[in-house]
Write a structure and sequence with these properties.
This protein is of the alpha/beta class. The protein folds into 2 domains: 2-148 and 291-334, Rossmann fold; 153-287, Rossmann fold (3-Layer(aba) Sandwich). Helix content is 41%, strand content 16%. It contains 14 helices and 11 strands. The strands form 2 sheets. A 7-stranded mixed beta sheet has the order 3-2-1-4-5-10-11, with helices on both faces. Helix 8 links the parallel strand 7 (198-200) and strand 8 (226-231). Helix 1 crosses helix 12 (293-312), helix 6 crosses helix 7 (185-193) and helix 8 (208-220) crosses helix 11. The structure holds 6-O-phosphono-beta-D-fructofuranose. 6-O-phosphono-beta-D-fructofuranose binds at residues 11, 75, 112, 135-137, 179-181, 232, 287.
């Protein structure tokens, strides 16, 4: 009998269930009744404190299209993993104890950047780990695509589409803030797909005067509205030039709930007073609902590929998309690296040639 544990960790996304289904279906197909699947609840927390349930084939029925995660998830920052829990217990030892106590042969972990650091830590402790690249942010090193990204792009694009009609009617400037943590992939893709006029991303610090110019130019050309897609991590040139310490201190007195409100206030001071500015923050809605078709395929393929690593005993890897093939990438290489947008990459060049302004 093979015993394989599953857990989902970090922020959720639309295709966690679809991915687990892909792994489970492939394992059941290979092992038949000779495999037992353990689902740890609420991420690494379940592994630490033996909170799990035994999963049956029926648990994976009908979940291809279901967003969220049937196991629940939680954020367990990597830096806290090496700190004792509230009872003074070593968290890594607790996880190892659960793993050996249940006589697990392997652990399938679905997560993003922080998760893969912990997965790599566990692999270093000789646990048999296979990682799967989940995140709407697409900021994982070693893979061209992460599952969850495309579904979030669809929803963020839809938000921009909806703003278009109302922005046109009222002749307004609209700022749509898109998640993405420290990178701009989601905003860039949704911005291009939604026809945003200005896109602000962390990888290209903005100059507010340039943003104003772009808006004024559009007005001068007779355009009724301007739409800005702004990444939650977007940063001004001025702030970017500050040391981390000074910026942190400055942000302590930051009166704005998020970057869009800062950009909105900066614009308000500069553009002609007749132009109304509105801000829309779709927030977590872009992580919700059903996975899009692209993500269902990606999730199913990645799931099947992860199952193959389990079957082959090829542990210590994350399954990754590279040139439309799925390949194993060592967790040790993935852990701790962020994949951000190269401002010199062709997608930025192409966007610029479409007339999109990056505020620089
Ligand atoms: O990593 C996914 C993500 O949605 C980021 O884009 C965002 O910064 C963060 O999670 C939000 O985290 P939380 O769900 O904990 O508010």
């Amino acid at each position: 009998m093979r015993r394989i544990g599953f857990l989902t960790s970090g922020g959720d996304c639309q295709s966690l269930n679809a991915t687990m289904r892909g792994v489970a279906k492939s394992l059941y197909k290979h092992y038949g009744e000779e495999v037992e699947l353990y689902g740890f609840l609420e991420g690494f927390y379940g592994l630490m404190y033996e909170k799990y349930r035994i999963l049956k084939p029926s648990d994976f029925s009908g979940i291809l299209t279901e967003g969220g995660t049937i196991l629940g998830t939680s954020r367990q920052p990597f830096k806290m993993m090496t700190k004792p829990d509230e009872n003074g217990s070593d968290k890594v030892e607790l996880m190892k104890k659960t793993y050996t106590g249940l006589k697990l042969d392997g652990l399938v972990i679905l997560g993003g950047n922080g998760t893969h650091k912990t997965s790599n830590l566990l692999a270093g402790e000789r646990l048999n780990v296979v990682g799967l690249p989940k995140t709407i942010d697409k900021d994982l090193w070693g893979t061209d695509m992460t599952f969850g990204f495309q579904s979030a792009v669809e929803l963020a694009t839809n938000a921009i589409d909806c703003i278009h009609t109302t922005a046109f009617s009222h002749r307004r400037v609209f700022i749509v803030e898109v998640m993405g943590h420290k990178v701009g992939w989601l905003t860039l893709h949704a911005g291009i797909a939604g026809g945003a006029d200005i896109i602000l991303i962390p990888e290209i610090p903005y100059d507010i005067e340039k943003v104003v110019q772009a808006i004024e130019q559009r007005k001068g050309a007779g355009k009724r509205f301007s739409i800005l897609a702004v990444a939650e991590g977007a940063i001004s040139k001025e702030d970017f030039a500050l040391s981390k310490k000074t910026l942190k201190a400055k942000l302590l007195n930051n009166p704005y709930p998020s970057i869009s409100y800062k950009v909105g206030a900066e614009l308000e001071e500069r553009i002609d007073p007749d132009t109304e500015i509105r801000i829309t923050v779709p927030g977590h809605t872009i992580r919700g609902g059903s996975p899009c078709a692209f993500d269902r395929v990606a999730a199913s393929r990645l799931g099947a590929a992860a199952a193959k690593l389990v079957i082959d005993g090829n542990y210590g890897n994350m399954v990754a998309f590279q040139n439309d093939e799925i390949v194993p990438v060592p967790l040790s290489k993935v852990a701790g690296k962020l994949k951000s947008i190269d401002p010199k990459s062709s997608i930025i060049e192409e966007a610029r040639s479409l007339g999109i302004n990056f505020g620089d």
